[in-house]
UniProtKB/TrEMBL annotation:
The chain crosses the membrane at residues 40-58, 122-144, 156-180, 223-246, 252-271, 283-302, 308-328. The keyword NADP does not apply. Its main location: membrane. It is a multi-pass membrane protein. Keywords: Cell membrane, Membrane, Transmembrane, Transmembrane helix. It comes from the Bacteria. It is found in: Cell membrane. This is Flippase-like domain-containing protein. InterPro entries: L-PG_synthase/AglD.
Amino acid sequence: MKKTLKQLLPIVLAFALLAYALRGMPLASLLDQLYKASPLWITVTALVMGLQTLLRAVRWRMLLQGLGYTPSTGRAMSAMLAGSASGLIIPGSGELLRCTLLQRSDKVPITESVGSIITERLVDLLATAVLLTLTILLESGRLLAYVRQYMQPPAWLLAMTTGQWIGVAIAFFLSVFLGIRGLKTLAKRASVQRLSTRFKVRERVNGFRRGLLSIRIVDSPSLYWLTTFFIHSLSLVVLTALFRALPVTETLPNSAALTVFALTSLGSLTIPTQASIGSYHFLASRGLVAYGLPILAGTVWATFSHAVITVVNLMFSALGFLAALRFLRGRQTYKVSKTL
């Protein structure tokens, strides 16, 4: 029951936010702008996203090579895309399928590949934090205007005194301290040694830790970080291309892509909706208001851009899934023929 609720909550929240963001928007206005969309810029968007996907596969392969495994870039990319397709259908299943496919194709232990994926997520989080900092430095005026207009704190929060804030901080840190101490006590009481002997937990934990620390043994750290830089820079290129694709946003400055990226990234981290549906529409459309764009035009662009990104991702994911199935089928046929 709890598992079902966890899977349904992001979907329900996504469509609730989507309905709120699209409320009052005339369908005719949306269809008119979609009809005027530039095929050239949509094609550019798809090509840039394809290059970004390739770079993500190359970067993941670097981590796996550091662990001593040598999957080809094509197999790493097909496993990654197949996982993306699965994650869009069943929330949380993408990483498992991605690791399972690579385990079957290149004998990479699932624990180590899961650890490498978590390392990827942490690196992406760090890169997002850098871009958020850059956005605050370059677009602080517009962001402050956005916060004041849409994210005003409640009156009781503004009325809190310094002493009350200190009390809240002390209570927070005390709760964290007691929680950590309680977990340590429970860990001591648990029969860890017996479980590790029966279920080989220790080996799994060691494999997971190796994958998590794979970034420390990458053959070329400078190339790894350069690839990460290009991956996130291409996200800004995608948003800029989508601005140029619609008449209502074609005159926006390139810095607007930085602001939209910052707001939607924060939304994906704090609002757990499926495929960023709803949260992306709401935050992107409101962020463009800071650039003088009417809320209706911002909502039209947010709907259009999210649809293009989702469709392109689905196309790539479907191709990756088919490629993974074909490769596994071919590998199985090869094993059978070799046995005979």
